[in-house]
Amino acid sequence: MPIKTKEKRIEEQKKVLLGVFQSMDADRLKAIQPLIDNVCFMSVILEDLSKEILEKGVTDKYQNGANQYGIKKSAEVETYNVMVKNFSTLMKQIIDALATLLPNDTAEKVGEKLAAFNREIERR
After folding, report:
1. In the chain, which stretches have pLDDT less than 50?
2. What is the model's pTM?
3. Of 4, 42, 66, 96, which has the maximum CB count within 10 A?
């Protein structure tokens, strides 16, 4: 099976997430499109980082000069930790946008779909 490019995986994420917002009119969707783009990008990058962390572990050995060495948190873990916080912030912004851009009953249904999307991301 051919390996999908990151761009292809991001586009697939966008299709799924845009399906969640199918009941939103185009103008309102345009308002949150940058948030959706960033969430989809981050979900793919976080998935890749988690695979790297599983393969390499959470620490790296280092040596600074002849006598200074030790173990530190890996660059992948550092990046993952920052990005997962940003991902959570973006998801909250999308949820908040739903509350203001959609009628309550529609927002609740879309919110449920968005929560399912988020759970799927977390399972990977």
Report:
1. none
2. 0.78
3. 42
